Amino acid sequence: MDPDDPLYIYELEGALNDPEGFFKENFLAHWREGESHFLFFSHPREEDLRKFLKTQMGGTWVRTHNLSYKDWQGGTPVDSLSIGKFLFIPPWASRLEDPEGIMIRLDPGVVFGSGTHPTTRDCLQALLWIYEREQPRKVLDLGTGTGILSLAAVSLGAEEVLAVDLNPACVRAAEKNIGLNDLKEKIRIFEGRAEEYIHLPADLVMANIHFTVIRELITLPTFFEKNWVILSGLLRSEFLEIKHRLQVPGFEILKEWDSEFTWFTLAGRNKAEL
Ligand SMILES: C[S@@+](CC[C@H](N)C(=O)[O-])C[C@H]1O[C@@H](n2cnc3c(N)ncnc32)[C@H](O)[C@@H]1O
Asked: What is the pTM of this model?
């Protein structure tokens, strides 16, 4: 998407049945959070939206948002971005001569995980820090967004990544990015809740996700079966609570990152698994 491309975003509420199947042309993404839905288009589709709603049992049109792709991304055009030794390149960026570092193709689309947010940046730093010490082979990426952390983990040596997000727009964006980097063999993506995938075996679990989800994940015994852990997406008071709850025998917090004391990230390890 070009920075000045328009976005037509229709906010709906209720249980919607298969908007992906109904809208085909100019349909960019279906962002779903519980019963709230945001349907993204590159062209206006009011007429079709009315027709779609007539096919639904419930579902109401709450409001419409019109803005440019650049404004959706917070006013800054998405461009090549370097974080540590990673270089993220959107498909529309001009080719770099002899780029240095690990090149990853990334189209953020309209979902979280462009690399500009402090929590993503600190998760990438945490990944680099862990892979300097060990090479976790099997990775779980809970709340994958664009798939950015999964792509980074594979570029550092992970052989098998399972990425999960409950938002169908994220699953589509991550699938696209996995394809752009030709990594379908190594990264599998599922639409679902993190809590339902945490039991899967992995050497490293990373979750840059809402505090309430992390709080639930760390009550589950299978969370403590992973050698390495990266947790992020936590504000200060939430971080302190999570750290407190992580004071359990065998679990060790090894390093912490913060962005201007607002967003916090931690890397931890399960000694019991060593
Ligand atoms: C902060 S974003 C992180 C995206 C990316 N991993 C990154 O580091 O930039 C959190 C993601 O978690 C997803 N999410 C929120 N709650 C979830 C849950 N319970 N299970 C799975 N995914 C969830 C959201 O849709 C969103 O894509």
From this structure: 0.88
